[in-house]
Design goal:
CATH topology: Rossmann fold
Structural class: alpha/beta
Number of helices: 4
Distance between the termini: 27 Å
Radius of gyration: 11 Å
Strand content: 15-25%
Number of strands: 3
CATH class: Alpha Beta
CATH architecture: 3-Layer(aba) Sandwich
Number of domains: 1
Strand order of the largest sheet: 1-2-3
Oligomer: single chain
Helix content: 40-55%
Largest sheet: 3 strands, parallel
Order of helices and strands: EHEHHEH
Shape: globular
Amino acid sequence: MLVTMIGVSCAGLASGACFADFGRQVTCVDKDGVRIEALRRGEIAIFGPGLFDLVDANTWQGRAQFATDNPAQDRA
């Protein structure tokens, strides 16, 4: 199952990470390119117990990815 989370603030990022940890392919989309680039580098600006580990593990395993709502920006 493919899941798209729109918005990667507190709820969106945590939900996306959990869906990915359940084995789903998740794309987290946000209009803030700076936030997406930070997530791609493994930097998480919000705190949640275990959130960093969930995002890190699922990104590394290829189940979680991050994109902007601008496809041209994603290719750059």
